[in-house]
Structure formats: structure tokens, C-alpha cells
Amino acid sequence: MQAMTAQSLSPRASLARSDASVPARRRVAAAVRAMITAGEIGPGEHLRELDMAGRLGVSRNTLREGFRELAGDGLVRHEPNRGVFVAAPTAEDVRRLYTARRILECGVLHEQARTHALSGPGVAAEVLDVTARALHAAERQEWRLVGDLNMDFHAAVVRLGGSAVLDAAAAPLLAHARLAFRSLDLPGALHAHFVETNRSLAETMRDGAWEQAAGDMRSYLLAAEAELLEGLG
Length: 233
Description:
The chain is mostly helical. It contains ten helices and two strands.
């Protein structure tokens, strides 16, 4: 089944579809985090309470609780007498982010190798599907969608670990990554080189060469970190 991109659902619809057993503040935080990951809101953007509460269909008190969750993740900041703003990553933030991403994403791939995961299209079906869709989007020069699918690709890699705990750890990391690239205001076409790298990685996973995939992912993330640090000066 085709996976949805981060922007497939409206924030209100995404919240409505979420698990009602999860506290409302966490569902609000997840919905806003998804908006950041989808590039719908960017670094430094003012998240006005009335507007955001209306978009999400929640009370302002619940929204504030969700904002506190996001502040704990470092995704938003509260400025007294001004309100809540989306964080703008610094160079040190990027270094910490990519250290965490290498530990998580490469760790999942190393574990696949350790447990002798099988090869074949079924094993890497989601990453193969996401990369195929990204290639089509790049051909149409739909760069916003390409950016969304790049986030989906990395989320799918983490899901290979089969752990809800790892998936939860990945969510704020990918939101921070989207903010980092948004902060540079790069031309959308620069996402194109990620498409080809993701395709190569997906095919390596399909072939069951998990240690090679882990090494390639490490090189990929190091290169992305270097690109961001250069852009941030």
C-alpha cells in the first residue's frame, strides 16, 4: 500500500486520525511536528495561538500543552510577551542532530545485518516505494514533494527496525532535519541529488547488503551534515 507523505493529511485530519488513547497534548505535538517535517511551517515562524488552535481544532490550553512538549524537543521556543516561534537550528544543533541520526539510522541497518535479515523487494518494500515516487516527483520538478519524500525515506529506514520506540525517536530528529534545510533557503532542485542516493541505498537494502547500506548511509549523512554546516557558515 502506498505510504502517505507528511503533507497528505490536513493538520486537523491528522489529529482526528491519531490514537485517542494518547494524551491530547502529545497528539497536538505530533501534529505540529508533522507540519514542520512536511515543510508547512519553517524556522522562525510565529505560531499564533488562535490560528494554530483553529487549524488543529483544539482549545488554546491544549495547544499550549502541546507547545510545551515541542519545546522539550527543541523544535519551538517561547518568547515572553511575544509567543511561540519555530526554532532556527544553529551549527551546534546540526552537529548534535546528525550524530543522533547516524546512531539511529546506521544502527538500524547494522542490526539488520546482525540478525541476517533476508533480501528481496518485500523486505525493503516501503523504501523502494518511496524512492520510486521521489524519482517521479523529481522528473516533474515537484521539489516540495521530493523534500517530503526524502523525510519519508529516512522514516521508512528506521521502521525497518520494527520498534515503536525507534520510530518515536526518529520523529523529532526528522523535524529538526527539515528545519535545518529550510533555514538555508536552498533551491528546491538541490533535493535532486538526495533522490539518486536514496534510490541506490534502497536497492542495496533490497539486495540484502545491509552492512554496505549502513556504511553508505553513514557517508550520506556525513555529507548532508557538511553541506548544512557550510551553508550555515
